[in-house]
Structures are given as C-alpha cells and as structure tokens.
Amino acid sequence: MFKTLVNAFKVKDIRKKLLFTFLMLLVIRFGSILPIPGVDTDYLSSVFSSDAFNFVDAFTGGSFLSMSVFALSITPYITASIIMQLLTIAIPKLEEMQKDGEDGRKKIASITRYVTIVLSLVESIAMVVSFGNQGLIVGISTMSTFQKILEYVLMVTLLTAGSALLMWIGETITEKGVGNGISIVLVINIVSRIPEDFATLFETFIKGQSVLDATIAILVIAVVIIGIVVLTVILCEAERRIPVQYSRKIQGRRTYGGQSTHIPLKVNTAGVIPVIFAQSIMQIPVMIAAFFTVDYSTFGGKILLALSSGNWFNRENMIYTVGVILYVALIIFFAYFYTSITFNPVEVAGNMKKSGGFIPGIRPGKATSDYMTKVLNRIIFIGAIGLTIVALIPVIFSGLFNANVSFGGTSIIIIVGVVLETIRGIESQMVTRDYKGFLTE
Fold first, then answer.
1. Which of 147, 185, 243, 266 has the most crowded Cβ, counting Cβ within 10 A?
2. DSSP class of 134
C-alpha cells in the first residue's frame, strides 16, 4: 500500500488528484468543528449521552454532538442512494434509466441529489423544532416569535447547506480526486474519532497500572485491533470464482471464442450494508426513547436496554445480551436481501447463454441460474457470519471490559473496505497511464 502511494506521488496527474483529495478532507474537518451560532453544546451532550448516539456521532466525526455545520454529515446522501436503489427495482421507469447507459445513470444521480436535499431539510427541521425550545438554542425563552423563527430558519439552512456541501465535496472527489468521494468522506469522519478513542482506552486500561498490567493491556488491545483488521481484509477480498467456458465459433478460416474465464462472486457481496441496516433498525427505538422519560424497570424498558449494543456482554447484566440474537438475524437477513437486489443470477445466466458461455458440467439457462443461486446462497451465509464476527468482537471487548469507544467492527469494515478500494483505484490509474505512455511512444 505504501509503495503504491510513493509511486503514485511520482506521477504528476495522480499527485494532483491526491493533493486535491487531501485539501477537500481539510475542508471537511474544518466544517466539522465549525459550530452553528447560538447552540448549547452542553445541552446536546446531556440529551444524547445514550450509547445509541455514539453510532451516529462516530459517522459524523463528532460534528453531531457539537452541532457543527456538518452535523448531518453524509448520511442523508447515503440514505437517498439506498432509497433510489430500492426504488429502481420497484419502479420500471427508474429501472429503464439505470439500464440506459451513462445518460440514465446521470438522471438517477440528479434525482438522488434532490432526494438528499429533501431528507436533509426534513431532518434539520425535525431536529431544530424538537429541541429548539428545550435548550438547544441559547436564550430562546427571551426571544420574540419573529426572532425564534429567524433562528430556526438560520439553523435549518446551515444544516441543510452543510449536508449539500458535503455531498458536492464527495462527488467532486470522485470526479477530480482519487477513490469514491462519498466513501472517503465517511471514512475521514470515522478516522477523526480514533485518537479520542485511543485516549479513552489509555485512560481505562493503561493509565495508573503497573508496567506488567499496562504491557498486557497494550498487547491485548493490539491483538484485538490487528485481528479485526486482518479478518476484515480477508472478508473484503475473499471470492468464489465460478469457471465459465465460451464455445468456439468458426467463421471462414478464423476461429473465435473458446476462451475460459470466471465469474467472481464476492463472499461479502453486500459489504457493510447489512451491519449498518441492522444497527440502524435496532437503534431507532432506543433513539426515540431518549427523547422521553422511560421507566427501564418495566418490560418495555428492558426490551429497549436489550436493543442497545452498549448493554451487551455486560458482566453485571448479561441478560441484555439476548439482543445479539436479533442483531445476528438482521445481519443475515439484510445480507441476503441486499445481494438479491444487486445481483440477479437469472439475468447473468441469460447473458452468458446469449454470448455462448456456459459453466462446465452445467446446462445453460435455468440450470445455470439455479446453480449460481445455490452457490450464492452458501457464500452469502459465510459472508454474513464473517460480518457478524467482525462486528461483534469490539462489542464483546467493550462490554466485558467497559471500554467506551465509538469505533467498532462497522467502522473498521468501512475503513478497510474504502482503503482497499482507493488503493485499487490508484493502481488502475497508474496502469492506465503506463498503457497510454506505451501506445503513444
């Protein structure tokens, strides 16, 4: 990886793209610490002290609890993209756009931007109106009605504009920088919290301990982190290759086709989406409950405690770990669901048949699609179990040893996946440049 970056800086065009990406990341971090005027951050810290909001704050790089200009982060765009992806299956017109080449994809991207703005506006209005009169805005009780309206409009405008600006930065990085800009924006927010998390680990396990205990703690933390990263790399890179043979065609004196290739099926086809969906669904009731006074001694209150990952594997109340069962079930469900809408074995089998391709030992057509579906179902389950293990290791460690950190398996999967994707993108640009140089000589 480091060798790739060193070589990339030797290429003028790629060096410019890397520097542009770096400057955009500085803009993102500046916006994440630029607070909206008139906001009481102490109020936010007290209201959103629940573990449910650690997940949200980690994805915003700490800008959510500080209510900065980028408090909504890139999440409205991600939500809009997921909505559009689902609607593409349900609405034939959108499906036609997606299959209509570059022009169709540009139209869908344009619609996604508008949906992002609408979601940002709705989220910012809900946030400002819900907490404006409760202490979010300093001195709101002494303001006139007109002043309150102006303050609300200002905050909603800044939050919506901040989310729109992040969306533009992400798309600009994709176009003029390196890698997927939206993913890079998400990663820089997560990475920005890591120093604070390491400081928390130091305060919890190392500070004030004897040399032996501190050394053991450092080794255990290092082994856990390195182990998760290695598992994540294996999970991201693992694939099942289905061999494909193309029949020979003889036209005149020439023979066409006959080559062998393969269809790479990723073990982790859905990426980190199943974990994000599962966590989001389980945290929604907990986040809503945080806005109200809840008696956690009741049956409903205990269910809410079981839904929060911050209560899992707690040695004092292991009963709440039962929520892990639902968590694992949701990860497996969304792994199958998301893969089913992004990979169609029937369509792939049909395209292979039209091109004269076949899987050795399998008849073309329905038998091929049934075979690919069978293989896909097996590797999806393996990938879902791998995702679950990676996602749960930090939760288990945090619960057993009371390590209150914001990053977890989800964050590591995102970071590793995006880093690998970006490195591959840089390498492909370098290879393309070498080919161009060879052809022009």
1. 185
2. I
